[in-house]
Specification:
Blueprint (H helix, E strand, L loop, with lengths): L3 E4 L11 E3 H8 L3 H10 L8 E4 L4 E5 H22 L6 H65 L2
Antiparallel strand pairs: 1-3, 2-4, 3-4
Length: 158
């Protein structure tokens, strides 16, 4: 079977020495070829394919220096992620102390809220008492007026 070559980036024709197959890139990175293929599929920053050779086996080729740059950047990103996450673990006593502090702060907030609500409730109860007194006074007044009307009506009748 005759080997077919498909160029995806024509500017590299005649510069095949700058290219490496997936297998060669995997060897450079110390991983399996399937890992390199996965990187190529998943990462938009992975170098673009330059050439595909189809024959008994299909091989994809990439620019070696672009792959090396990609790997260097990925290693730096991973290193930064490790160092930003790797704060020293807190002891159980420190965690307990932090939790106690959180509970004390929450208790203080709840006490202030309770005090505020108690004051509001007291004001509502005072106002309600005033309304009850006013209502009672008005009811007594209405009853007195009705009694006066009855008396007036009772004395004027023949």
């Amino acid at each position: 079977m005759k080997e077919q070559v498909e160029w995806h980036r024509a500017e590299f024709r005649g510069r095949e020495a700058e290219l490496s197959s997936v297998t060669e890139l995997a060897r450079r990175a110390g991983v399996d070829p399937s890992t390199v293929s996965t990187w190529a599929r998943r990462h938009a920053s992975f170098p673009k394919i330059v050439m595909t050779k189809r024959g008994a086996v299909t091989s994809k080729f990439y620019v070696t220096t672009e792959f090396d740059d990609y790997r260097r950047i990925q290693k730096e990103v991973a290193r930064q992620a490790r160092t930003s996450k790797s704060a020293p673990p807190r002891s159980p006593a420190t965690r307990a102390q932090e939790r106690l502090q959180e509970l004390n702060e929450q208790d203080a907030r709840l006490a202030a809220e309770e005090n505020e609500l108690s004051e509001k409730l007291a004001a509502v109860l005072r106002r309600r008492h005033q309304l009850d007194e006013e209502r009672g006074n008005l009811l007594r007044f209405v009853q007195q007026e009705l009694a006066k009307l009855k008396d007036a009506l009772g004395t004027e009748q023949p």
